[in-house]
Amino acid sequence: MKFLHSVTLSQTNLSGYLPKHWHPNLTFVDLSGNHLKGKIPLSLTRLENLAHLNLSSNSLNDTIPSTIGDLTSLQNLTLASNSLSGPIPDSLAALPGLVHLDLGSNQLNGTIPNFIRDMKKLKYLNLASNNFHGVLPFNATFIKRLEVFKVGENSNLCYNRSTLGSKVKLGLRLVIDMGCLCRHRRLRIHPLMIQVTVPMMKIIATWRKRSITADQVRWFLVLQLGFLLLSFS
């Protein structure tokens, strides 16, 4: 077991609790799609070489441990579709190399912390289907860096027009126009998913049911806003 670096047991009907002991050389752990329950053990957050952690689609509960910030090599953190509660821990700010952060479909609450917008390498952010409240702390510069951005289904989460501006240009197209909103009004965001332009060799995509030809150099985004409900405050 000296050279064990990866544990992949996704969708294998595992049940019970996460183990308390982990091989110190692990860089990749995927236990998604099982029946695991209980807390995320502190021992899992002591794996200093861990780059990929996927515990999604289980029945994990309690809070995200503050020691998650000790995983300084972490690039992918996927904890979606569990029963995790509490706020996003401030210790996540200690993970400058994080590229993929998926905390969707939990019971997380509190405000979305400002430090997320300072994660320069972040490309995928899913905070949808939680209990976050307050105003999104993100601006246009941050959103344009992302490839996927999901914040829908947080019933008390609002968007302040003055932070993002009335128009945002992503990729080759003008995809958000909020010019109809008054300056001091807020937009309550329901299902919202933004997938941002990235250069690719091959892509199959549609925009309003029209095919995108494969000879374009850069690709724009697919934008699904769902329902936007105005909340005046």
From TrEMBL:
The keyword Cell membrane does not apply. It comes from the Eukaryota. Gene3D superfamilies: Ribonuclease Inhibitor. It is a single-pass membrane protein. The keyword Flavoprotein does not apply. One of its GO terms (cellular component) is membrane. InterPro entries: Leu-rich_rpt, LRR_dom_sf, RLP_Defense. It is found in: Membrane. Keywords: Glycoprotein, Leucine-rich repeat, Membrane, Receptor, Repeat, Transmembrane, Transmembrane helix. Belongs to the RLP family. PANTHER family: OS01G0750400 PROTEIN (PTHR48064), RECEPTOR-LIKE PROTEIN 51-RELATED (PTHR48064:SF1). This is Receptor-like protein 51. It comes from Sesamum radiatum (Black benniseed).
